[in-house]
Amino acid sequence: MGNGLDKPDTSKDAEMCEGNGLSCGVVSMQGWRPEMEDAHLCVGSIDGRPECAIFGVFDGHGGSRIAHRCSAELVPCLQRTPGFASAKTAEEWSGVLYNSFIALDAQMRRRATGEDFDDRSGATAVVALVTPTDVLVANAGDSRCVLGRAGRSVEMSEDHKPTNAAERRRIVRAGGSVALGRVNGELAVSRAMGDYGFKGRRDLGPEAQMVTAAPDVRSMSRHARDELLVLACDGVWDVISSDDAVRFVRDRLRSAVAPAGAISGAHITSVVDAAGALVEHALDAGSRDNMTASVVLFNLTPEAANKLRAGGAGEATDASAGPGRPSASRDRHDSAAQSSAPGSDTGSRRKALRTRGSGRNLHVVSGEEESLGSGMGIRVTPRPGSTRAGGPSSDVGSKRGGFFGGSPGGDATAAAAAQPVPSEPAGSEHSAAAEPPVSAVGGVAITAAADRRARHRHSRAGHATGRDAHGRRLYSGRTGHFG
User: Fold this and answer.
1) Residue 468 lies in a domain
2) Are strands 379-382 and 439-441 parallel, antiparallel or unpaired?
3) Cβ-count burial of 274 within 10 angstroms (0-12 exposed, 13-18 middle, 19+ buried)?
4) Is 123 within a domain?
5) Are 53 and 41 in contact (CB under 8 A)?
6) pTM higher than 0.85 for the full model?
7) CA-to-CA distance for 344 and 65, rounded, in angstroms?
8) Domain CATH for 275
9) Strand 444-446 vs strand 193-194: parallel, antiparallel, or unpaired?
10) Domain extent for 193
């Protein structure tokens, strides 16, 4: 962790974008860390595949360079990956995402030659690709993505820790060890971009190195009850469980759902408001890390929006958990962000934001209208010609130690994104049923410890069949297919 600050830096950077019936707000806070090491990705429509959107959080350690390179270079790398232009099915898109992670890591390593570059610098990466029919999440490290569906949380990624049995086996086979829960006693994650000092076995492929950038890629078919995605780094997940994050964001957004699901300036600002509230909630819950949260809202039907306002769907429980039994969940790593990729956002309407001032008030500068966020002190002010977000992030920090809205809004491709999506398999949702609280902040139970214990129960079922009990499909980089 390194030495912390005497008091947390609570100023925030923010960005929001929209496209394909989706809206996204990202907020990052440096917190107690001496440097901000995170970056993010927020693209409502991708050049070359305008019907698709992509979002990501990159949590740097040993410096911010790798995180910012991932943010800037992932989309161009994705666009160059074979199959990008033609991918249609979830399996095809999974292969493209998987290969783009491997290619980007190799590309950054080649560029590092001759530079003043620390081979211990790295970043975790969690990326969500939303197509008209599927949600796909590629993850390397312990940042996390959670889908909110009808008030329930569905975890779309698995934390890659050296103590996980499969991760430990790979580390040992590559000549490493796990000590104090870390790779060779140093690195707290077993998969990451960068960290080239752990990738030196020339006789092994990239997937077999002590630390690998090879992601797990999970996908789920889109459903009319999909409400939101939350992507965040472990600075959030270390103190807030997946269930509680979905509940918290949902409650924050409930009163802000635009009539008939229409996008408005006030509604879009509420996405940033929700992300900012989640980051503040993590700080109040005791996070000592950088914090970044990205909230993505799906287009809701008027019926679904009304149900959300009523709050009924949020009370759903998991019948399989049984009376008095907590439902399974998870836990996570670092956070904070900025940055968007070039060559993106065709057909999407983008609002780039810049933070002004410090403290808990977030003043955002936008190229659009002016409106006041609901309760977070987030003000969106017109700024002619605005095209980017966020204040600059520092180039240094560490992991080593010793919803609901969405209308086309003029998008040519939004009709494809809004087309009917197939029904989910029975039992495909993960319950947001309450777990015994460890502590409560702002009315939300913090159950990170129970979250950690339960997390591993969902991780392996999909390896044999390609689809687990929740309907998630896991892509195999070894075979190039699900399962």
Assistant:
1) no
2) unpaired
3) buried
4) yes
5) no
6) no
7) 21
8) 3.60.40.10
9) unpaired
10) 9-421
